[in-house]
Specification:
This protein is mostly beta strands. It has three helices and 14 strands. Helix content is about 10%, strand content about 45%. β7 and β8 form a beta hairpin.
Length: about 240
């Protein structure tokens, strides 16, 4: 091989390698989610500086009450633990923040959760209780943690750390990104794909500042806000 061809091959190889290490990007158009776009079913969300939303509640549950695609992104600062802690229905105390997809009701939805303590990791689970819609009916039953096709570790969260958590679901396939790096990819199953509902957020025992963006829904759809169903029975 002559020197000129060798240089061309080397340049092509560098281009391929560079493309391989570029973090995966989403092509979905997004819009900023404000407090007025959120239906808070449990806890509180306040308005903070620099368009941040403030979460300082032992339990926070909310969904976006306008039409979106199944894509949601949260740029958040982990402020630290809440002053008081609340146990999950199982009795376990967990500190976590995450995203909801296809949140049909309190008993049927998909979660992509960043568990902060006791171990930093992303866990995807489906809560499925056919025929039940209210929290008083299903409680904490029907959860199934989903094994990923591919997964990567996530950093430990310390007070003051700021990261971007994003989840996007196409058909039954869910991908989760941290700081634009894919950390979870897999199928959540046909039952989860069949669920119809908005995207949203959830936290347990974590104080947060966050900015939210959701995917723009392509095609024709009704141009009105989704009804806000709050209260204990609507909380997941």
């Amino acid at each position: 091989m002559n020197p000129r061809n060798s240089r061309l091959v080397h340049a092509l190889w560098l281009l391929i390698v560079s493309a391989a290490v570029v973090p995966a990007q989403t092509a979905t158009k997004t819009f900023a989610v404000t407090r007025s776009n959120l239906c808070v079913t449990e806890g509180e969300i306040g308005d903070g500086p620099n368009n941040d939303l403030i979460v300082d509640a032992q339990k926070m549950r909310a969904y976006v009450n306008t039409w979106t695609s199944q894509s949601i992104e949260a740029e958040f600062t982990y402020v630290g633990p809440t002053a008081k802690e609340s146990a999950l229905g199982s009795g376990e105390i967990r500190r976590q923040f995450g995203l909801k997809l296809r949140a049909q009701d309190a008993c049927n939805l998909v979660y992509a959760m960043w568990r902060i303590e006791p171990e930093s990791k992303v866990v995807v689970s489906v809560k499925r209780n056919p025929g039940q819609t209210r929290s008083s009916e299903c409680g904490n039953r029907g959860y199934q943690n989903i094994k990923p096709r591919r997964a990567s570790p996530v950093p430990a969260l310390h007070p003051g750390d700021r990261h971007v958590l994003r989840a996007e679901m196409v058909h039954d396939n869910l991908r989760v990104f941290v700081d634009n790096r894919e950390v979870w990819d897999g199928s959540v199953g046909s039952d989860a794909e069949a669920l119809t509902g908005p995207v949203g957020i959830r936290s347990d025992n974590a104080r947060l500042l966050l900015n939210l963006r959701a995917g723009v829904l392509s095609g024709a759809h009704p141009n009105y806000a989704l009804a806000c169903k709050s209260g204990p029975d609507a909380s997941d």
